[in-house]
Amino acid sequence: MGPSTMSALIILAVIGAMAVVRCVFSFLRPIITYFLLRHFLSKRADLKKAGDWAIVTGSTDGIGKAFAHELARSGLNVFLISRSTEKLMKVANEIESQFKVETKIFTADFTTVSYLYKIIKLLLLPRYRTWRVGTTYSLLPVDYLFKLPRVHAKGQC
Question: What family is this (predicted)?
Fold first, then answer.
């Protein structure tokens, strides 16, 4: 074999090795992401330092309910807020039986009552809040839409 053939073989070997590494990494990536990094990069241990209670709005369905379950799994007591008392009681019972934490419920419609955020602050004064209330934007007044970024970014009105 000549030097040019040897160089071509080395280049092909490097390309083949890179392809194998890429395939192995793409196979292991979900395992690394969901099992290893989840435990090493999780801040679950730090949540209790913020306080014993977390407030979750929109906590009867979707991402709000998922947040409530995850916070309870972390050992926080959960103050659940939503429009439906029946759904709130169901979620509260689920959380209390599954995670052995305390829950409180508060029925509120955030589209009609603007002072609720201030009342919630005074009720428990937790340092960890999750605002997950959903709404249909086509039905809201324009001035309310300008307040939304501030509520979601700072957790306050």
Answer: Belongs to the short-chain dehydrogenases/reductases (SDR) family.
Residue-level pLDDT, tens digit, the chain, 157 residues: 778 888 889 999 999 999 999 999 888 888 877 777 766 666 555 677 777 888 888 889 888 899 899 899 888 899 898 889 999 999 999 999 999 999 999 888 777 666 666 666 656 554 545 555 555 555 555 555 555 544 444 444 4
Count of structural domains, the chain: 2
Q: Say yes or no: 78 and 130 in one domain.
A: yes
Q: Are 150 and 157 in contact (CB under 8 A)?
A: yes
The reply to whether 36 and 51 lie within a common domain is: no
Q: Cα separation of 23 and 149, whole Å?
A: 42
88 and 22 within one domain: no
Beta strands at 77-82 and 53-57: parallel, antiparallel or unpaired? parallel
Q: Quickly tell me which residue has 């040019």 as its tokens.
A: 4
CA–CA separation, 92 and 120 (whole Å): 18
Please answer whether residues 146 and 152 qualify as being in contact, where contact means their C-beta atoms are separated by less than 8 angstroms.
Answer: no
Handedness of CA 94, 99, 105, 110 (dihedral sign): negative
What residues contact 116, with CB distance under 8 A and at least 6 apart?
A: 81, 108, 110
139 and 111 in one domain? yes
